[in-house]
Write a structure and sequence with these properties.
Structural class: alpha+beta
Distance between the termini: 33 Å
Number of helices: 4
Number of domains: 1
Bound molecules: zinc ion
C-alpha cells in the first residue's frame, strides 16, 4: 500500500486531479502495470503510477471499453511494456508526458511533447 508521503508527492506531480476528468476529491492511485506483473517494487515506482478519479479507476477494471481507452492513453500498460518508455496522455492539457523516477517522487513531469497523432 502506498504511504501518505508517496501519495502526496504523486498528487503534486499530477496537478492534484484526475488526468481524465479533472476531479480533485475522489482520487486514487492508478497502477499502469498491475500487481503481479513485475513485482511490487517496480509497481510502486513513480513512472508506474498516475492519479485518476476513483470512478474511472473502477470503470477501467470493470469495462473493457474503458480499459481500451486507458491502454491507448498510457494510463494502463501491457505487462511487457516499460512504464519509463511509454508516455501518458493528460486529457485536460491535451499533451503526452513521459514519467521518470528521478529524485524518487520529487520529480516533475517532463513536458516531452510527443506527437499526439502517433497514438491517437
Ligand atoms: Zn476522472
Amino acid at each position: 500500500m502506498m504511504n501518505s508521503k508517496s501519495w502526496r508527492l504523486l498528487l503534486e506531480r499530477d496537478f492534484g486531479r484526475c488526468l481524465h476528468c479533472g476531479e480533485t476529491v475522489a482520487l486514487s492511485p492508478n497502477h499502469r502495470i498491475n500487481r503481479g506483473m513485475g513485482g511490487s517494487k517496480l509497481r510502486d515506482k513513480p513512472s508506474n503510477l498516475v492519479v485518476l478519479c476513483s470512478r474511472l479507476n473502477h470503470m477501467i477494471e470493470a469495462d473493457e471499453v474503458w480499459m481500451g481507452l486507458a491502454l491507448r492513453y498510457g494510463w494502463k500498460l501491457r505487462s511487457w511494456q516499460s512504464a519509463l518508455d511509454e508516455p501518458v496522455y493528460d486529457l485536460l492539457l491535451g499533451e503526452w508526458f513521459m514519467l521518470d523516477e528521478y529524485r524518487d517522487w520529487e520529480t516533475d513531469r517532463k513536458s516531452t511533447r510527443l506527437n499526439s497523432s502517433h497514438r491517437l
